[in-house]
Amino acid sequence: MSFEAGRPAAPRTPARRADTMLSLSARAGRLAARQLHTTAAGRRAAGADEQPPPTPTEPIRRERAPPPEDPFQRAARIFSDDMRFLWEGKKSRTFFPSHCDVCIIGGGIMGSAIAFWLKLRAGPGVQVVVVERDSTYRTASTPLSVGGLRQQFSLPENIQMSMFSAQFLRNADRFLTVEGDEPPAIQFHPHGYLMCASPEKAELLEQNYRTQMENGAKMELMTPARLQERFPWINTDGVALACHGQENEGWFDPHALLSAFRRKAIQLGAEFVEGEAAGFESRYVPNMQSMGKQSVAGGNYVLDRAVIRLKNGDVKTVKAAIFVASAGANTAQVARLAGIGEGEGLLATPVPVEPRKRYVYFYHSPDGPGLDCPLLIDPSGAYFRREGHGGHYIGGKSPTGTADDPEPSADNLDVDYDYFQSHVWHHLAHRVHSFENLKVKSAWAGYYDYNTLDQNAIIGPHPHHHNLFMATGFSGHGIQQAPAVGRAITEHILDGEYRTIDLTRMGFERVLANQPLYEQNIV
Known about the structure:
- This protein is of the alpha/beta class.
- The chain has 13 helices and 19 strands.
């Protein structure tokens, strides 16, 4: 094994239908019924009371009912904004949107997918604003991932979401092509995942295989003899059982999918603004009760505005009926701005998501596996897949968190090249002998939005802030489930419930109850 000096930029990975459109009247009725879970009196009062903007460092205020804004001034302000928008045109709009129906904080793959589905279903009936702090996505998790897609999970929800995502990717041209542009080059390579299990993990692998088959996935369970027959380049030493995805598994270009979601959402009418969430303003709603929240003079406070700090330092606010926190590894910080993890009762429990750094190494092995190479996951946790042609591969391994394999610091995205030699290479070389003479050419690092409770996604509204939805904690498999999660969040917002895949078990309630919903197959 050898290394080449330098650290070039990370290489780009080459990597059912749409819901029936709701009628405008039915959609408006559902959205109105959904907003904030207020009573009829509360809804009539909604919008009548507003607070002055907080300072950028002030998270949320609930002390007293703020003074009302004059209805005529409010109507004139909104009309002025809309007329300016129509006059200048969408492409030349430079002013900050002051209001919307849904404000999405975090415009990566998850936020962009949610914006796409909302606009696809609701059209102009729902105004969507997406706040993304870095429009270049230079350090975003999506472009720095390996772009894997698999159904080899232990939970039915994860299996079903990834199965839908596979169908979506196969029809990406129909869903995501922007009028006048070429279809997005998602470059899905359906070569499957190959999960290899040690004798100690063989029973668990078989249990997961049954769950996957029961949910419609197509897998082949392989003995060592069958594994050797199918992939002669594999050393089966230490492998008691393996599972190979026969359909809808493989990898794709993650940056291309992110760009396609964003561009299509913009074409459908979503607005993306570059800035960072700095706080929330709350609004007093009379005659409204909320679970776990003490009534204040016969009413309560709900999230009303997001405070956004722009790149130039300006601080703006955007008023919304519904907010979505989909900021990846930074979602817990956004939630704290809304008092989650900072208060009492339902607000005492923080979002258990933190950034975990993962390395991806790009290497060359001219005699390595050929075109039939799947994405292989070794019993040690080390993995690799082919990257293009000509004997190039990418691979890595997640730390075990033990004393001899600790988690690296997440303060930056620096790469530890020594980690490949000490913790990755010998596993790869043992499984594929031709990797003994591989040469590492470059590497990069990215963040998992790691759920410390159960390494599983948190999806849906917060039990206290009913108008704050979350989509976070995917722990490394978010990009492959983004099409399904975007659809699910859209269903919950527009319909008040999940209509296709029931993700109720993935709600924040399990965090409050400290009842983990473990996903066993985390890579």
